[in-house]
């Protein structure tokens, strides 16, 4: 048994001797042994099998992700700030609009109170038209206050839509579907036809050419900004400079810049009293029409021109012009004639101011 163990020991020694010798030689030679990455399977998967460029790309993507997250946070803050600012600006705009409209509302309330309470009112996106009753010492009548909101709110038309034609203001209003209408300029009869007096403008064009103002004639109408223009014009260039859209002529001028204008002696007494139609404006460009009733045009009923002047001034008008009167005076509102034409019925005239809802 002992012999067998000794033999086994000798066999092991002989077997291990070469390796022991190699180890001693390596130590004596100061050499190191490096194992390949394959000796470490986990490391081989994470590094040795991934190219260097891919590793750099991965690092770049990680950095981009962090940058994107930071940018997203910044954008969210910017959007929140923008929304807050926009909300504040909307509030400021609303307040500013309300404040901007406040002077207009105050002014409109003041001039409306002078006229009294409206008997009727029509309002739309195009227009606001208010009808008032007038009860003066010597006559009764009506006032029409108009705020034009768009260029489509008002136009001047010819009787039967032709030069020389004539029709009642009610007929013209019905034909055009107008909510209101007032007779316009004077006229002259010739050859069985009724022609507008002197300078007349339709849709920006002169109907019968330009005629310089003479004696007491004037021109009155609206320009392309819906502003009332009027007065005496010595040349076509002078009137053209005001860019008239439409307008008509008659006599005389009653009010300019809020100041009473001298009434020519002839028109103070011929006739003394009569039905009257007057056009005027306010400083905010609203229009005012006054129509005075009278049972004839012979001088015994209706209003004097001085009385119409005083009414315009009392109502706060700026400029005022006398339109054709007598039996021509007609005010249409809501599809009916509201005044009482002195002929007993409406007179056919060549020009009409019409208003549209």
Task: List key phrases describing it.
7 helices, glycosidase, 357 residues, Phosphodiester glycosidase family protein, NAGPA, alpha+beta, hydrolase
Shape: elongated
For the biggest sheet, the summary is: 8 strands, antiparallel
> Pairing-aware structural class of the strands and helices?
alpha+beta
The number of distinct helices, counting runs of at least 4 residues, comes to 7
| Strand order of the biggest β-sheet | 1-2-3-16-15-17-13-14
The radius of gyration is 48 Å
> Strand fraction band?
25-35%
What is the number of strand segments? Answer: 20
Order of helices and strands: HHHEEEEHEEEEEEEHEEEHEEHEEEE
Mean pLDDT: 86
Give the helix proportion (percent range): 25-40%
Structure commentary:
By secondary structure, this protein is an alpha+beta fold. It has a domain at 112-355. It has seven helices and 20 strands. The chain has helices at 2-28, 41-48, 52-115, 169-176, 236-240, 265-269, 305-314; strands spanning 120-123, 127-135, 140-148, 154-158, 180-183, 187-190, 193-196, 201-202, 205-206, 218-223, 228-231, 244-250, 253-256, 259-260, 276-281, 287-292, 320-323, 331-333, 336-337, 351-355. The strands form five sheets. Strands 1-2-3-16-15-17-13-14 form an eight-stranded antiparallel β-sheet, covered by helices on one side. A five-stranded antiparallel β-sheet has the order 4-20-5-18-19, covered by helices on one side. The radius of gyration is 48 Å and the shape is elongated. InterPro entries: NAGPA.
């Amino acid at each position: 048994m002992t012999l067998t163990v000794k033999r086994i020991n000798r066999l092991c020694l002989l077997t291990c001797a070469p390796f022991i010798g190699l180890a001693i030689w390596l130590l004596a030679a100061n050499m190191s042994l490096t194992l390949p990455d394959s000796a470490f399977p986990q490391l081989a998967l994470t590094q040795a099998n991934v190219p260097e460029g891919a590793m750099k790309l991965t690092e770049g993507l990680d950095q981009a992700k962090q940058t994107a997250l930071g940018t997203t946070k910044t954008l969210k803050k910017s959007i929140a700030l923008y929304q807050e600012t926009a909300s504040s600006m909307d509030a400021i705009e609303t307040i500013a609009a309300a404040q901007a409209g406040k002077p207009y509302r105050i002014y409109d309330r003041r001039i409306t109170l002078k006229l009294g309470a409206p008997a009727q009112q029509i309002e739309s996106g195009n227009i606001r038209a208010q009808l008032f009753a007038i009860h003066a010492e010597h006559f009764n009548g009506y006032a029409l206050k108009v705020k034009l909101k768009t260029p489509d709110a008002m136009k001047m038309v010819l009787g039967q839509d032709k030069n020389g034609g004539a029709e009642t203001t009610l007929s013209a209003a019905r034909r055009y579907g107008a909510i209101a209408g007032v007779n316009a300029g004077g006229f002259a009869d010739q050859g069985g036809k009724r022609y507008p007096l002197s300078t007349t403008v339709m849709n920006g064009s002169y109907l019968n050419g330009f005629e310089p103002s003479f004696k007491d004639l004037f021109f009155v109408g609206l320009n392309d900004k819906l502003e009332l223009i009027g007065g005496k014009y010595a040349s076509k260039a002078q009137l053209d400079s005001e860019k008239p859209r439409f307008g008509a002529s008659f006599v005389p001028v009653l009010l300019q810049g809020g100041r009473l204008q001298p009434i020519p002696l002839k028109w103070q007494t011929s006739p003394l009293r009569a039905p009257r139609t007057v056009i005027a404006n306010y400083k905010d460009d609203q229009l005012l029409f006054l129509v005075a009733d009278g049972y004839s045009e012979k001088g015994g009923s209706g209003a004097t021109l001085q009385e119409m002047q005083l009414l315009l001034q009392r109502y706060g008008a700026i400029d005022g012009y006398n339109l054709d009167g007598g039996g021509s005076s007609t005010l249409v509102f809501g599809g009916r004639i509201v005044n009482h034409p002195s002929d007993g019925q409406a007179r056919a005239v060549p020009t009409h101011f019409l208003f549209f809802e």
